[in-house]
Amino acid sequence: xxxxxxxxxxxxxxxxxxxxxxxxxxxxxxxxxxxxxxxxxxxxxxxxxxxxxxxxxxxxxxxxxxxxxxxxxxxxxxxxxxxxxxxxxxxxxxxxxxxxxxxxxxxxxxxxxxxxxxxxxxxxxxxxxxxxxxxxxxxxxxxxxxxxxxxxxxxxxxxxxxxxxxxxxxxxxxxxxxxxxxxxxxxxxxxxxxxxxxxxxxxxxxxxxxxxxxxxxxxxxxxxxxxxxxxxxxxxxxxxxxxxxxxxxxxxxxxxxxxxxxxxxxxxxxxxxxxxxxxxxxxxxxxxxxxxxxxxxxxxxxxxxxxxxxxxxxxxxxxxxxxxxxxxxxxxxxxxxxxxxxxxxxxxxxxxxxxxxxxxxxxxxxxxxxxxxxxxxxxxxxxxxxxxxxxxxxxxxxxxxxxxxxxxxxxxxxxxxxxxxxxxxxxxxxxxxxxxxxxxxxxxxxxxxxxxxxxxxxxxxxxxxxxxxxxxxxxxxxxxxxxxxxxxxxxxxxxxxxxxxxxxxxxxxxxxxxxxxxxxxxxxxxxxxxxxxxxxxxxxxxxxxxxxxxxxxxxxxxxxxxxxxxxxxxxxxxxxxxxxxxxxxxxxxxxxxxxxxxxxxxxxxxxxxxxxxxxxxxxxxxxxxxxxxxxxxxxxxxxxxxxxxxxxxxxxxxxxxxxx
Length: 660
Prior knowledge:
Helices cover 51% and strands 16% of the residues. It is built from 16 helices and 18 strands.
């Protein structure tokens, strides 16, 4: 069974400054709706676009806007061969139907120039071409327009340049005469002079003037009788005609190439701005960078002031940021309640508004929404200063807005992904915590319950030594549970950002002495020595929390070293910081474990604790408390064996973070 893939209809409508172009666009829109087709509006931008009358430019902008409102996507191509470029674009874009207005030009005789529609049909024979007739009034306006020359006024500078080049051509021709060159060589010199005039001067008036002057100068200086405009030989009339025609054609081509080069340079610059925007936005680390880069690139493209209203965390427009060519400004004349109201309307409706637009046309600027997938990231305002955006400028500007929205969307997705990752990590932490608590609490509670039951049932039969051992075990287990609860509460406060530091100037030696009074009761089985600095060390700290850090470190040394080990607590001053060290000569910590000792729930043997080995919260808590004081805690090896925990605390917490 044969299967054919039906080609989707694609309608191409041509846009021009013609008043009747609205009628053409409307007809194309109806056709697209009837055929369920894609509608593209194509504008061929000529090289002399800048010299078009403002009335035509305004009408063109209105036609483009009307095409957009009717669902057309706008495409702009630069060139002067309109029918060929329409046909080429139709082939590339798989266009099935072309809709154009009837050209005012008619073929008057057999060898006359073909009309626009005839040339399109010739260049695109496989595409259906629909011609929408113009009204008589429109044809008259087109005829009037055909006689309007480029409105570039001659300048004195160009006149002087033209005069100098004509004099140089004449002088070079006289030199050629002295060396016996023929008249054809001299004619070439004058044509070259006209070519240079056309390239250097701005107005085409001087290329025409130069062509006429070249013929007259050639006749005056080089044709017998010299120094007169008469000629003995009639064939020179033909020579003059050919010379004039050659000069005019050369000048015309040079002017066209110059305009195309100028236009290409302008479009290349705008394309470079768009490319640079894409590259810079890829490197942006946050939304502030995206807004700053976008504003800077728009200023580079349009040379107009920009004000951006970013979306805040509550889903509303935040405080505006104004940008101009001199940098960043906090205040702007657009930052008033009326302009803010326009920005809010654009933000909620996802539509452009403001100056030269249908909504809020009396505003001081144009407002555009920065949107992607029906999510608005903010509003950008452009102060036009009475100069509307060109078609291609507007296209690049909208592309920059799209790049901005895409960059903000990427940052938003990354933030949501990070948030989800944090939630998963927190859930894993909670799971580990509950599992570890269930293991860690079960053992001491079982011990306390068993010992209490033994005391209730057999108290009279137990001797004094056994009773003392049972009471000691109950005390140890209850103290261990109390420490566990205290660490859990402290970790919870830190994780929730609720840990408050009650800073005061305290003597460090007193804090160390107080910490030693609350350490594990098995401290008597070890040799504890305190090596204090002779000077009184005053530190701005939360004495209660720093004491908890010291208790955790000392208890860690007591529980993880052999009986009879030596534990040293040392304090000293280094520049603007105090250093507190807890040193033991126990078995030490393996190198593979050292990078993880300050991680929560890490116990050195497994990632999740069980039995009576603890939850692995103590050192993580110590690190959090020390860093809250702008300090630092590190672990290093003692010589020959053992651990050396070193705490560095700034004597004034407002100073920079300590490095050790």
